[in-house]
Structure formats: structure tokens, C-alpha cells
Design goal:
The chain has 19 helices and 21 strands. The protein is an alpha/beta fold. Helix 5 runs parallel beside helix 7 and helix 13 crosses helix 14. The structure holds 1-O-alpha-D-glucopyranosyl-D-fructose and calcium ion (CA). Calcium ion binds next to loops.
Length: 562
């Protein structure tokens, strides 16, 4: 039996500060804005809040490029605001996680500025700085945002490594001084009263021992970081040190953004005494992605979706507690991605909500997900701000797409879909700001907004509230939190169904992704269940007779044994 932790039964929420709520009319969401909306989050039932970066940043990658780890960027507020947020959140029983971005910093960070001044000096060793040969870096690795990972240092024959944006130089974790600095900083924040961190892009901190070229996977002669990471061995040593010297002494809650580890390695990451408390399940996120770029990706079907969920549930069982999502600030809106077109309505949104929320693990809700916020359907190129989208767009042009086709090819995956301002009400700019929003507001804000959602008993918001309430209901919480997930009807296309097996209690979760009525039979319900009680339903009525369940199109049910 898994050791119980205070956070297992909670529901977590991710805030993307720039787009949440603007308190001072400059068009940019801020920390005072978050404080103003804490009551809203409490009303929803949120008890853990992950806040994407608010540190000092020139914002080449929206705050994921940090110029001062100890300072709050003025666009987000002040350190006093941050301290007040911690206090106000605590009053409402909400624990705060900040974003820990330590694979890289900003090129405007003091360390990098000093490294540029003297690449062979002390601070040069904080980064990966190499000699160029024939004007080229030592390897053919492609950065996540497109182009080479090596950037020349002006006035020298040297270059530095950046696996993300060129304004995000990678920190050299092999250097004990770097590790010491990071450890100090993490402890400083935890001492302030943070509950913990979401840990950014962490698998990238270990590089291959030798800087070598690998086989190219596109005609640009470069290879993807996925290939590079296969050759990088021993990240665990760094992570173990961070755990022992910073996380463990504070009993911090840490959620790793962990890509590119095998299922076998999962135990080291989130097992007993693992590096982190939990890590996101990205199996569904990755499904359909292509090494060639976004233009070549395919959108997962409901059957793909359920297969991914069940695989992750099976691998993690008895081994660690995953964090479950349908979207985040890097992904398309979940309802626009996992639901078939004709299912993209409130009933379908509730269906998807129930399916992922009832899985074993810590559920995260990304801001706006609880309203049913969708991808923006009408992007124009000049409205896109995200560097990753621009890289993928360029890639399309490079292989001969017209501008219009290139935009059409990347629009669905643009990270800006998740980053459009939160839709608070039906007034101008969706009530997000009194000024001019930094990113365009989704045109559907008059139909989809918090004011409407919180006023209706049958809204997506109300449904999320019910799911969160059920998770806290003492009668069922143990089973929801710790019960084993057991898939059933796996070969029934467009039906996702599973038991959650608790001690002396079973729950049954079923959803119909089909646009037609479906009738399925689960014998156990007829044979050994006394009487099924419907706990969650996105329809008026439910028909369960002798183990035979009649599901309306997009109907979702959570059922308990009486
Ligand atoms: O993301 C890391 C990551 O590997 C991807 O999700 C990446 O952003 C995506 O493939 C590019 O489209 C984290 C953050 O979540 C992301 O916002 C940052 O841009 C990135 O790290 C760099 O800090
Ligand atoms: Ca502001």
C-alpha cells in the first residue's frame, strides 16, 4: 500500500499568470490579479495552485527564461505581492507551487552576462561553451524551438548551448558551483513557505557525455532532442542531490515535467524515495506527435486516448502517484484535441472531464479548462506570440508550404491556444483587462465565460465542482484516491470504461464518445452489485438494468455500489 500524503486527495490548478487576470490595466495578468481571484478558485474546490513563472524575465519564452531567480518581474508585481499571495492562499487552504526552471536561465541573467565577458573564466563554466569549427558548433542537435542548439558568442570563435530558445542558455549541471547555487535558491523559496515546485523540462539537465553528432532525422541535417536524450545517462545523480539537499528537508511537493523516460525508470522518479513526489502523465499528450514537426502530427482518437490513459494507469500502479491533465500552457485545449469535432459541446466537455478526473492520480485543471475554454479558431500570424509556434511555422515554409497552409498546419498545436486571456465575463476583452490584452482574446468569450458558467447549475464549471466535491466526499475518497484502476470493455470502440477498486468498495466509470446511443453490458454489475447508485451524470437520467447500460451520445457516468 502506498504511503499516504497530504496532497493525494487534493485537486490542483495551473495558473498562467500573464493570461489569468490583469489588476492594473496594463494588459498583462499579474500576482494581485491572482489574489483577487483566489475566492473563485476556492469556490471551485482547488487546494493546490501551480503558478507558471513570475520571476524577473525578458519573456523570450514567457517567463521560462529567468534573469533573476530571487526577484519578481515588475510586470507581475512585487515580492510583497508574492508574500501576500502566500498568506492569502494559506487562509483559503490553498498550497502554492512555483515553477522551477533550472535547465537554463535567461541570457540576461548576471551569470551569463559574466560568461559572455569572459567565456574562459569562472562563469563561462556555468554554461556549455565550446569552440566552433568552420563557424559551426560541435554537434548537429536541433533545439526544441527549431534551428541549431549552438549560438555563436560575438567577438569570439566560441558558441554556447541552448536546447530551447537562444535566449535560454543551458546551465552546466556538471559544475558543482551551479548545483550549489540552484540548491541555495530552491531552499530560499521553500523557506518562504512555498509548498513546492512544478519542475520544468528537468530531463534535459543531463547531456550526453560526449558532444557528438547523431543521425539526422530531417533534411536540415539535424537530429531531435529525443535522440540526444537517449545518449544522456545519469540524470538521477543530479536529481537525487536536489531531493536530498532541498526537497526532502522541506518535505516539498514536487511535480516533475518529465518527458523521455521509460516506464521502467518511472520508479526512480516517483517511487518510494523517488526524485519527485509526482510527475505528469504525458502519454496522451505525446500520442500522434511526429519527429518531422507539428504539420505531420495526427490528432488522437478517443480510442487512442483511452489506450494511453490505461497504459499509464497500469505502469504506475503500486509504483507512484501520477499527475493527470488534459491540457497545460504548452498544449492545445484538451476539449479541442481529444474530443471529436461533433463532441465539442458542453456534454462532451463534461465527458472528457469525468474520464480523466476519475483516473488514479492527482488531477490538475489548467486555467479556463473548468469553463470549457477552446482553441482559438481564427489565428492570424501577427497575433501569434509563441516562439515555438513560430519555429514550427518556419519549418512549414522551409518544406515549401504557402504562408496560409503553414499557418493552418500549426494553428491547432500553437501554444497560444492555451494562453489566450482567461474569459471572466462577456464584457470587453472578456473582463480580463481594462487595457489592451497582450494576446488576443478568443472570439467565443460571449458564450464561454466564468460569469455565465458560475451562474448555471448545468455548466461545465458546475460539473467540475461536482467532480472535485466527489473526490473530497469521505464516503468515496479512499477509493477515488487509492483504488486500483481496472479497465473494462477495452475493445468497445468509443467507449471508455473502468472500475476503481477500493478496499471493500468499487466505483465504475463509463463514458460514450460516440455520436450515437450505445448499449453495453458489464456482467459484474448484474451479478455482484447490489444496486448501482449514480454519483456523476452529465445527462438527466441514467439507464442501468441488470448490468446493461444504455448510454446516450457523450454520456458519462460514475457509479457506486450501494
Ligand atoms: O516545456 C518543455 C518541453 O519540453 C515542451 O513541452 C516544449 O515546450 C514544447 O515541446 C515546445 O512546443 C517547458 C515549459 O513548459 C515550456 O513552456 C517552456 O517553453 C520550456 O520548458 C522551456 O523552459
Ligand atoms: Ca497587469
Amino acid at each position: 500500500m502506498m504511503k499516504k500524503k497530504w496532497w493525494h486527495g487534493k485537486t490542483a490548478y495551473q495558473i498562467y499568470p500573464k493570461s489569468f487576470y490583469d489588476s492594473n490595466g496594463d494588459g498583462i495578468g499579474d500576482i494581485p490579479g491572482i489574489i483577487e481571484k483566489l475566492d473563485y478558485l476556492q469556490e471551485l474546490g482547488i487546494e493546490i495552485l501551480w503558478i507558471s513563472p513570475v520571476y524577473v524575465s525578458p519573456c523570450a519564452d514567457q517567463g521560462y527564461d529567468i534573469a533573476d531567480y530571487y526577484g519578481i518581474d515588475p510586470m507581475f508585481g512585487t515580492m510583497e505581492d508574492m508574500d501576500r499571495l502566500l498568506v492569502e492562499a494559506k487562509k483559503r487552504g490553498i498550497a502554492i507551487l512555483m515553477d522551477l526552471v533550472v535547465n537554463h536561465c535567461s541570457d540576461e541573467h548576471e551569470w551569463f552576462q559574466k560568461a559572455l565577458e569572459d567565456p574562459d573564466g569562472e562563469y563561462g563554466k556555468y554554461f556549455y561553451i565550446e569552440e566552433m569549427k568552420d563557424g559551426k558548433g560541435p554537434t548537429n542537435w536541433r533545439s526544441y524551438f527549431g534551428g541549431e542548439v549552438w549560438e555563436p558568442i560575438p567577438g569570439t570563435n566560441k558558441c554556447y548551448l541552448h536546447v530551447f530558445h537562444k535566449k535560454q542558455p543551458d546551465l552546466n549541471w556538471e559544475n558543482p558551483k551551479v548545483r550549489k547555487e540552484i540548491c541555495k535558491m530552491v531552499n530560499w523559496w521553500l523557506d518562504k513557505g512555498l509548498a513546492g515546485f512544478r519542475i520544468d523540462a528537468i530531463i534535459n539537465i543531463k547531456k550526453p557525455e560526449k558532444f557528438e553528432c547523431y543521425e539526422a532525422d530531417r533534411d536540415d541535417g539535424l537530429c531531435s532532442m529525443d535522440e540526444v536524450l537517449i545518449h544522456a545517462k545519469g540524470v538521477g545523480e543530479f536529481l537525487g542531490e536536489l531531493r536530498d539537499k532541498a526537497f526532502a528537508p522541506h518535505d516539498a511537493l514536487t511535480i516533475g515535467e518529465v518527458f523521455n523516460v521509460s516506464d521502467e525508470e518511472m520508479k526512480d522518479f516517483i517511487g518510494e524515495n523517488g526524485y519527485f513526489s509526482s510527475m505528469f502523465d504525458f502519454r496522451e499528450t505525446i500520442e500522434g506527435k511526429s519527429v518531422l514537426g507539428w504539420y505531420d502530427c495526427s490528432i488522437p482518437t478517443p480510442d487512442d486516448y483511452k489506450k494511453c490513459c490505461f497504459e499509464s494507469q497500469a505502469y504506475s500502479e503500486g509504483l507512484g502517484y501520477l499527475s493527470n491533465i488534459i491540457e497545460n500552457h504548452d498544449e492545445p485545449r484538451g476539449v479541442s484535441h481529444y474530443l471529436p469535432k461533433e463532441a465539442q459541446n458542453e456534454t462532451g466537455k463534461k465527458l472528457l472531464a469525468a474520464m480523466y478526473f476519475m483516473l488514479k492520480g492527482l488531477p490538475f485543471i489548467y486555467q479556463g479548462q473548468e469553463l470549457g475554454m477552446e482553441n482559438n479558431k481564427n489565428w492570424s500570424l501577427d497575433e501569434i506570440d509563441d516562439c515555438s509556434t513560430m519555429g514550427e511555422y518556419q519549418r512549414c515554409l522551409d518544406i515549401g508550404y504557402s504562408e496560409a497552409d503553414a499557418l493552418a498546419a500549426v494553428a491547432h498545436y500553437s501554444r497560444d491556444n492555451a494562453r489566450t486571456p482567461f474569459q471572466w465575463d462577456d464584457s470587453e476583452h472578456a473582463g480580463f483587462t481594462k487595457g489592451c490584452p497582450w494576446l488576443v482574446v478568443n472570439g467565443n468569450y460571449k458564450d464561454i465565460n466564468a460569469k455565465d458558467q458560475t451562474s448555471r447549475g448545468d455548466s461545465v464549471f458546475a460539473f467540475y465542482k461536482e467532480l472535485i466535491g466527489l473526490r473530497k466526499n469521505p464516503k468515496y475518497a479512499e477509493t477515488i484516491i487509492y483504488g486500483k484502476t481496472e479497465p473494462v470493455l477495452v475493445d468497445e470502440s468509443n467507449i471508455m470504461a473502468y472500475f476503481r477498486r477500493g478496499e471493500g468498495q468499487n466505483l465504475f466509470v463509463i463514458g460514450n464518445f460516440d455520436h450515437e446511443r450505445r448499449i453495453v453490458t458489464v456482467e459484474e454489475l448484474a451479478v455482484s452489485w447490489k444496486e448501482p447508485v449514480v454519483l456523476i451524470n452529465n445527462y438527466e437520467g441514467a439507464r442501468i438494468e441488470n448490468g446493461t447500460i444504455t448510454l446516450e451520445p457523450l454520456q458519462a457516468l460514475v457509479v457506486a455500489e450501494n
